[in-house]
Amino acid sequence: MPRPAGKVVGQSSFYAAVVTLVVFAAFPFYWMLITTFKTDGDLYNLKSIPYWFNSPPTLEHLKYLFEDTLFVQWLSNSALIGLCVVAITLLVALPAGYGLARMPGRSGENLSIGIFVTYLVPPTLLFLPLARVVTLLGLQDSMWALVVVYPTFTIPFCTWLLMGFFKSVPREIEEAAIVDGCTVVGAFVKTVLPLSMPAILTVVIFAFTLTVQEFVYALTFISSSREKPVTLGVATDLIRGDIFYWGELMGAALISSIPVAIAYNLFLDRFISGITGGAVK
To answer: Where do transmembrane segments lie in this chain (predicted)?
Structure first.
């Protein structure tokens, strides 16, 4: 039996929208991929069609990236900074979010709003006080300065996010654990944390992504090439005056973005659960 014309049009519109979205999302990766392997002659020839290879692919850009720059060092710096910031964020945001969620009355809600507002403060307003802190700690021109600075914007939002999720965890579970002999901290560790793994994973991905993609603070506090994270190193050492190393730039961007894209896809369900978990009790 033929389907109604309206249903066919509706399905066609749906699939057309999905295809459009997929193409829109995948096109930057495709562009970075072909640019990485194009020859310089193919890249700078205005008569060449830019959407595919007009000359045989080359590995020269990747060879230059790995052999003649500090790209591997930049990647390891970003990974180390990200892991340290994630650990600090969890260490502070977990107890803070739980405390705010269990605080009686409206005081916890008002305090959480105040904490979230600090996340909205523009980074340019915090340069001077943060620079003073970095100087006092003796961390000038060191990647450890970023480990100190980055939690100032990861902790507020992650605390607010965890607080919303902890509010959705019934108090009765903790009370039952306390009745069975657990302390308040033991009840939190043994009952609340296992139920909050989607939110914790969301915080880990969110904090790590923010750290890896941040540029302004890195540009402000670091000038030594060996201490730079990948975002700063690629942008400053592969752009020299009016000369852009497009093949190397796109190769570095592609290699840096693939792990983050894979992580988001592997944990997408848990990530969405963690983002929306505090919205509905």
So the answer is: 12-33, 79-101, 113-131, 143-163, 243-267
Where helices occur in 103-142 by DSSP H, the ranges are 107-119, 127-136
Q: How confident is the model at residue 276, as a pLDDT?
A: 57
State the residue for tokens 């007009």. Answer: 54
- Where do the domains of the chain lie? 5-58, 67-276
Q: Which two tokens stand for residue 197?
A: 């793994």
**Three-state secondary-structure class, residue 11:** helix
Full-model pTM = 0.83
Whether 90 shows a pLDDT value over 70: the answer reads yes
Q: Which residue has tokens 């560790």?
A: 189
List the structure tokens of 25: 């999302």
**Tokens for 213?**
């993609």
Which architecture does CATH list for 67-276?
Answer: Orthogonal Bundle (1.10)
Among candidate residues 204, 251, 9, 217, the one with its CA nearest the CA of residue 133: 217
pLDDT band, very low/low/confident/very high, at 146 (cuts 50, 70, 90): very high
- HEC states along 256-278? HHHHHHHHHHHCHHHHHHHHHCC
**Eight-state DSSP code of residue 4:** P
How would you label 97-115 residue by residue, b for 16+ Cβ within 10 Å and e otherwise?
bbebbbeeeeebeebbeeb
